[in-house]
Amino acid sequence: MDVTTLEWTITIGATLAVLLFDVVVIARDPHEPTMKECAIALAFYIGAAVAFGAFIWIHHGHDYGIEFYTGWLTEYSLSIDNLFVFIILMSALKVPRKYQQEALLVGIVLALVFRGIFIALGYALIQNFSWIFYIFGAFLVYTAVKLVQSYGSHDDEHPEENGVVTFARKHMRVGETYHGLKLWYHENGVRFASPIVIVIIALGVTDILFALDSIPAIFGITQEPYLVFTANVFALMGLRQLYFLLGGLLQKLVYLSLGLAFILAFIGVKLVLHALHENELPFINGGEHLKVWDMPSLFSLGVIILTLVITAVASLWKSGREGDDHVPDHATAAREPGDVDDTQGPDWR
After folding, report:
1. 324/66 Cα distance (integer angstroms)
2. Would you state the pLDDT for residue 204?
3. What is the average pLDDT value for the chain, to the nearest integer?
């Protein structure tokens, strides 16, 4: 894929401009966005992604257009799974609703940074070591199995209790009061870290963990760094609005983890087949390529769309049949961002 320097410059510039616009707007008026605000913004971002895919299709060929749409849908579905964890974090760390937009924006910026780093590392690996596809594929299948096991055991997620966050709590004087994105404040002559510091650390750790799944998955669809980057950008843009727009609906997607597990396993198998097709390992078929099926992008797109549709329909059907009071333990109301006091946070001193 021949991407000009101008295309890269415009893409990165537009991404930074959108983030800067979000920062300015939110900084001026921290608030919980209305449904109308969220719907308009989300429609804009989704429309922009569809239009961008059309641009790729027309100017770079339909194969690359299909790869972009497939990668975008995959990353978008994984990003929706991120929302579950974000909701748990906001609830567990008692982030005031009017500051949740700011916290989410920080999480999205961190996600873009970490994914950019992982994309660069992933691209360098696949360019120099074709066997890395075996590892990527095996890792995705392993992740899929863990998702299914987690669903079956109804394990609750507690991202706010990971080791990094616990260490920060123990070694920092964290105050009780939120001050937006202000990290430090003084009270009675004593300097405190705002609780938002713990939120940012928790979001950063979460973003790194999700990038470990996300980047191998997208490289299983396309190895073009421009498509990998833009698919991630469009998947993350609008995530903040989706958080507020679908907060109540997200807990009804009870089969989402199973759907994502199937998608990750499918892409994992696709990566292993691709690795076999490009095999250079001497202990496999004498270092020669194997004649295996290399799945076309259109087939992958169809499988992913069908999986997402079945997952959504089955989840809503089950939730509607059992009612909100019978949502499984792994999709409890803890994922619903609750109303909390607008000024006070947890006491971590």
Report:
1. 37
2. 81
3. 78
